[in-house]
Amino acid sequence: MINFRSIKAIYIFEMSRTFRTLIQSLVSPILSTVLYFIVFGTAIGNNINFTNEIPYGAFIVPGLVILTISMQSVNNASFGIFFPKFLGTTYEILSAPISYVEIVIGYVGASATKSFCLGLLILMTSTFFVDLDIKFPILMLCMLLLSCVSFSLLGFIIGIVSDNFEQINFVPMIIITPLVFLGGSFYTIDVLPDFWQTITLFNPIFYLVSGFRYSFFGTGEVNIIISIFSISLFILLCIIIIWRIFKTGYKIKT
Amino acid sequence: MQTIIEIKNLRKIYKDNKVALDDVNLNIFKGEIIALLGPNGAGKTTLISNICGISSITSGDIKVNGFDVVDNYREARKCIGIVPQELSFEPFEKVINTVNFSRQLFGKKPDEKYIENLLKKLSLWDKKDQIIRSLSGGMKRRVLIAKALSHEPDVLFLDEPTAGVDVELRKDMWNTIKNLQNSGVTIILTTHYIEEAELMANRIAVINNGKILLIDKKDNLIDRMSKKTLIIHTNSKINKIDKALGKFKLRISKDKKNLEYDYSPNKKKTGITTLLNEIKKTGIELIDVQTKQSNLEQIFVEILKND
Q1: Range among A127-136, A190-199, B105-114 with highest mean pLDDT value
Q2: Does A74 touch chain B if contact means CB atoms closer than 8 Å?
Q3: Up-side HSE of residue A168: CA atoms within 13 Å toward CB?
Q4: Which of B179, B207, B223 is the last residue of a domain?
Q5: Which among A36, A139, A196, B234 is most buried, taking Cβ atoms within 10 Å?
Q6: Tens digits of per-residue pLDDT, B224-260?
Q7: What residues in B contact A250, CB-CB < 8 Å?
């Protein structure tokens, strides 16, 4: 039987951390997004036109949301589990009558919730700068949720395997940010040379951005089914890694 | 007596092939305070970690209240509260929040009345809204105890509860532990303070190099292992022991005024009468006689020396 009370305890404890640091949690990512809109959407964007139908300012909205929520999901989830490791409080989680699945639901659930809310706030903020007409709102919410969950799972893995704060920051800064920037967040890949187009096809974020963009405008660079399949595959891979970590006790148990 | 924790053939080998626990067998009885006594690195914390699920078991079985800690971990862990050696906290959290969190993490419904009573019992009620990092070391230790007791466990593990704590606070902590025992909680205490084990425990298990060297009731242990020394104060300076007294293996004290004789109080014939008669024959004039009993510390040192 699932121990809902324990999941709720972890979830609420993690969410309360957000409320204690509300300014850093919300204002900072929103401010960054506003700056992107001002620079790329308005200042430079008026001179760019990738698609005839979609203004550039609106075109970059899905990419900007993915850029922020991917970073925030990874940060939230990795710090969520790394902090107890750092403080030495994991003994309490490990000695509690709670399964590994429940621990993951608690931490990843809280992290994904924070990112999901942030994603919605960024969307709301974007309406101050561009006219946004979301073609498939339900699909958009589902894609946003899947993205938050997938990056939170990745963050959870990073939090467990990291031994120090440098390692925690390494993956988001060195891997995720470049992948998001090179994954078609600010352009369509057909503007790239053939070689780089082929390389981009190996970037998982490309499928995420494409699928998310499809839910906004009804058009993406790859079929929406392929996008959903890619995200699902990524989530499945993260779940298998987490299962293996808990099974072996890697970096958690001695 | 009802067994609450049953450990059979427990082995724990770390990845570097270090044997931390080597075929440990131990039964812990309901309502007792048992002290796990041993030097640093003896395996005390590893044993606790194995029981509580913090580290994995290499082989063997552990049952808590009849529940296997691996196969039936949920039921087993519900019975256990643990106070770790380190003061590990979320530093910016309020006392009341962290204690409530612990209760719900263990699947218990929120219970304001119970938590209030618990915090009052541990003299923490007036600190309930303070953030943890603002508390003193002693108060932080109490918060850890409150967290461990928040889900009403039957068994409480205290891993070096008074390590680095000043004398007054240590005594205060001992009172708290005694009160917990009186309320029906079984307590497993790890310590390397002999005085603590001697004062608190009903039974003592001596552990070294991952093995339980002996386990017995505290009084039995002292009786069984203890030696007594008869100190004979004389009126004159003794430079050499008379040949007639050679068989008694006497020692001369540093000030050369006393003779010391070791004997076992549990033997029927201690040899004291014969010794005193022989001393009388040698003409040594006695002023006083005194006996001194070895304490747990000397016994402990003796056990480890023989290991």
Answers
A1: B105-114
A2: no
A3: 20
A4: B223
A5: A36
A6: 666 788 999 988 888 888 888 888 889 898 888 899 9
A7: none
**What domain count does chain A have?**
1
In terms of CA atoms, which chain B residue is nearest residue A248?
B56
Q: B205, B223, B241: which is the final residue of a domain?
A: B223
Residue A92 to residue B74, Cβ atoms within 8 A: no
Q: Which residues contact A219 (CB under 8 A, 6 or more apart)?
A: A51, A213
Cβ atoms of A112 and A31 closer than 8 Å = no
Q: What is the CATH number of the domain that holds B272?
A: 3.30.70.100
Q: Which B positions 241-260 lie with beta carbon below 8 A of chain A?
A: none
Residue A178: inside a domain, yes or no? Answer: yes
Tell me if B300 is assigned to some domain: no
Residues B175-211 pLDDT 10s: 888 888 998 999 999 887 777 888 889 999 988 889 9
What's the rounded Cα separation, in Å, for the pair A151 and A136? 22
Structural domain count, chain B? 2
- Containing domain of residue A234, as a range? 4-248
- The more confident residue out of A215 and A55 is A215
CB-based contact, A87 to chain B, within 8 Å? yes
B70–A contact, CB cutoff 8 A:
no
Q: How many CB pairs under 8 A join A and B?
A: 76
Domain presence at residue A254: no
Residue in chain B closest to A253 (alpha carbons) equals: B55
Domain CATH code at residue B66: 3.40.50.300
The region that residue B207 occupies, defined by phi over 0 for left and psi between -120 and 50 for alpha, beta otherwise, is: beta
Is residue B137 domain-shared with residue B241, that is, in the same domain? no
Identify whether A253 is part of a domain.
no
Give the SS3 label for residue B139: helix
